Every structure is written in C-alpha cells, then in structure tokens.
Amino acid sequence: MNKSFIARNPSVLIFLSILALFTLVVTVLSEGFGVGVISTSFVKVLGKTLCLCLIAIAMDLIWGYAGILSLGHFAFFGLGGYMIGMWLMYERTRQIVVGSLSEGVLPPTPEEITAGIGNQIFGVVGSSEFPLVWAFADSLVLQLVFVLAVPGVLALVFGWLAFRSRVTGVYLSILTQAMTLGLSLYLFQNASGLRGNNGLSGLQNLPGVTAPQSVVSLWFFWASALALGLGYLLIAWVVSGKFGSVIRGIRDNEARVRFLGYSVETYKLAVFTLTACISGIAGALYYPQAGIINPAEVAPIASIYLAVWVAIGGRGRLYGAVIGAAFVSLVSSWFTGGQAPDVSLGFYTVKWVDWWLVLLGLSFVFVTLYAPNGIGGLIDLFKRKRKETDA
Amino acid sequence: MSTLLEVSGVTVSFDGFRAINNLSFQIADAELRAVIGPNGAGKTTFMDIVTGKTRPDAGHILWGEKSLSLIGMSEAKIAQAGIGRKFQKPTVFEEQTVQENLMMALRKDRAPLAVLFFKPSASDFARVQDLACEIGLSDALLRISGELSHGQKQWLEIGMSLAQEPKLLLVDEPAAGMTPAEREKTTAILVEAARTRAVVVVEHDMEFVRRLNCKVTVLHEGAVLAEGSLDHVTKNQDVIDVYLGR
Questions:
Q1: Is the pLDDT of residue A1 over 60?
Q2: Is the pTM of this model over 0.90?
Q3: Given the DSSP bridges, would you call strands B198-202 and B32-36 parallel, antiparallel or unpaired?
Q4: Structural domain boundaries, residue A43
Q5: How many domains in chain A?
C-alpha cells in the first residue's frame, strides 16, 4: 500500500517516456541537428505546443483537481513572457547600440548608450526614457526571478482577496476574466511602459548568440520539453498524496473539508499561486519561440481557450490536459494557418479560417454534453475494458 | 464532570426571522445527548452556530477547560479545536476510496506543507483499519466510497468524524433513510463513541432516540423547551402540545 510515487502512478512514467522519445525524434528529424525533415519553423510550433501543454496541466491542477475554474491563467503566462522579453530586448538592443556607437571616433559614454537603447526600444511609443518597470531589465537573473515572482505575487494578492471573501464558482471565473482583461487593457496603454500595443519583439534573437535559428529553436524545444516533464512530475506528485485528496475534496464538497479542519482558503490560494508560477514559466519559454508578445496575448479569450483544451482533453487527468492542449492547438493552427483546404458547397464556400471557431465551439459543446471526461476519458474506458477482460 | 461546551443566550435571525432565540445549552465530557424538536425548531442552525458556519447575533459560546470563545473562529479552527460534525445527508468524498476518506480525516497537522509532504506510517494505516472496523467497513477500505450504500456512507462519515478525534461530535439525523438493522448498528457506534467523548445527536425519530437511552433536549422555535430523560420530556405538557400532540 505504501509503494513509491512512480510505482503508484504508472502513467507518469509512460508520459515521460513518450515525451523523451518525442524530443529525440524531433531532434533527429530537425534541420539544426538532424536530417532536416522538420523545418525550423515547425520545431518552433512544436516547442510552443509543449509550453501550451505545460500551462494546460497547471490549468488541470487548478480546475480539474481543485475545482476552481480560473479563466485568467493566460495573464500569468503573458506576464512570464513579458518578464523574459524585457531582458531579451534590452540586452540585444544594448549590443546593437554599443556596436554602432563604437564605430565613432570617441568611445561612447554610458549616458549615450542608455539614451541609444531607450530610443531604439521606446521610439515606437514616442519616448526614449526608460520606464520604472525596466529598472532591472539589464539583469537576466532578476528578470528570471520575476518570471516566477510577478505572476506569483499577482496570484497571491488576487487569490487572497477572492478566496478570503469565499467567492466561488462562476463568480470566481468572472473575476479571473476581469483580471486578465484588466491586465490586457493596462498593457495596451503606452504609459504601461511595455510599448503598448506594439508589445515586445525580436525575442527569438538571443543576445550574444551567433548560432543560427535552426539550432536555437532546438535549444528552446528541449527546454520546453524539460519544463513540461518536470512540471508533469511535480503536479502528478502534488495530486498523488493526501494534498491531492484534500484539493479533490474541496472540488467535491468544500464545506465537508472545512469541517474536517482544513483551511480551504489557504489550500486554494496555494494551488492558485503554484499554477500561476508554472504558467509564468510556460510563458517565458513560449514567447522567445514566438518572437513577439503583445497585450492581445492576455486577452480574456486566451484563457477561455485554455479551459476548452483541458475540457476536450479530459479534466482531472494530467495526460488528458496534455492531449487536449496539443491536439486542439495544433489542429487550430492548421485550420487558421490556411493549410486546410476550403470546402466548396456550390452556393457557399466554407473557409476554415472563419469556420474553425464554430467547429471548435461545437466540439466543446459536444464534449461537455456527451463526453464529460474528454479524450482522456477514452483511455479510462480502455483501461476499464481491459480490467474486465482480465477479471 | 466538567462542562465541555456552554452555549448561553445565543440569538440568530435570518431576515428578521429568529431561528435561534436566546438559546442556552450545556454538555459535559463523555455525555450522549439527543436534541429533538419539530421542523424549523432550529436544530441544524444550532449546529451551524457551534461549528462556526453561522455567526450568532448575540450570546456566548464557550469551549473546553479554558473557556475559549468560539464566536468568530473559522470552521477549520473550530474543527481543529475538537468539534466534529456529521451532516444530515451523507457527505463523503465519493470519488475517493474509503481509505483515502479516513486518512484525510485522521487527526494530523492540517497545514498545506505538512499535508503535501505527509507520508502515512504503518500506525496511520492501522488506525484507519481500526476505524473501518468500528464502522463496519473493514472489507471496503479500497472501494470508491461513491459505490457504498446509503447506510455505509453515513457510517463512513461518522468514521471520518471519529478519525478527527473530536472532544465533541455533532451528528445530524444519522438514522434517516436507514433500515432497522442499520439503525441498530448506528446506535451502537454512537453509544460506543460517547464513552470517550461528548456526542450530540439531532434526531426526528423517537424510536431511535429511545434506543440511545440518554438525556434529551427538546428545541422549539429556537429555544430549549424541556430537558431531561425521554420519559420525563414526553410527559411535559408543553412538549406534548408543540411536538408530540400534533
């Protein structure tokens, strides 16, 4: 009964093996290190998909296990992206500015360099001054700390206020939507200091790295796979023991857990903050692969998509969240990327770019009504069948 | 015997309706008490107040030797102080096994980090096994509790309350919907539990109360109408008028 964590959860080992195998196959087929069957841009798509899977398992922890339907986790994802993006943009711009200024007769003064960087970065919003939020943008270490700390602190404050007032259910979902909408609107303003609707760009270029994108894309792909693997391991461990029992109890009957002597609010806050930090990491790995981040990324719809992925993949089972996020986001980019052939009905031509959302909406309704356990539920069905034939 | 819980002059209103009206109630260590009363007498509200779910408008609730005031404490803190509660409807965690349900209820550190790193020891498993024996579910430890019968779920919930090792256990209509045989077993579990702690049973069913064979408190319109042995209260004219005589 007291077996080790991995022995009690064979699906973790299976998942990690599949992930390792997938990483190996992509590497072998890539342009950077392999035979070149998979293009660099597709390696980036796959790497980004792994990051989406990471935020999806975080969503599964907060929604599928703890029963809190947060529709704001992309705010944390975006913040993670902004934090790493600031350093990437600052440092790369600094190198360019130093390079061009050193061609002059006199060596540039620090003031000249700062002014040059400011002009380069903030010229698009009609400014050259560094806003306060960029105070530590020159330090990779601090910006990496912020990747965790900024989403974490936001989640801690927001969660403390919401859970302490015992806001639950649909009201909490609406509050989280308001949070991500508020963040998005704030970032859209030039005064936010994060370049308004321009966002941060050129993030795919690592400062001081001369390796081609075909190689850099693989570094990020590996980092994303590693993060997903570790995240999966962490969350699977968190939900496997008594902590998992308690948060599933909170999902199913909050009052009962309270009268057992557990401080429900503290548990919710802990899970909310942990998942926010994981989302921040996922975002910090995603946006250097995307190359650009702007406030539209944290629009309310993004977090709703996240919930749809997890619902379609199957709540309360981590592999379900991974399947949902990978499947839906890849299919979605296939449909919206113009690769899907239009269907001509004679009197009307179905353009998938427009109709994909309708298809996604219908499949969400279908899953909610007829397959509440999603795609992951099929695996359960298969397992149960096998058990029955064994017995 | 010293007083374990002392409720004095407690009043609570919902939108002007006085659910509890200047109620006073005392219970000692290791006492079994039945609380009866017609619908709307305030039995469940009384439990809500003691367990911290509802905050009274006036009055005092003092707990234990140190006479700690329970008013304003959170439900979790009150539960940790030693008050267990069993709901009217069986509320167990239906997707989890009997063992997981009991393990979660076991008296241990409730802080999130302690729970995260908790590893059940052999003695914890033994304790869960003992509890399961007590409630007649020792063969069902690894079953998903949603599959249990109604009566078994009620026992499991009583077992979870006992696992908390409360000094006071509040039980809301434990016998509702049970077969005669199940009732008998429930009586035995509660009488046994009351040997080492105070147990308050809210019940509608007079036959069940008679079998508990304990002091009875009759509630009516949010206040205590009569108190004493079942025979004593059933002879009380007020009680006959409001409750039995209908």
A1: no
A2: yes
A3: parallel
A4: 5-390
A5: 1
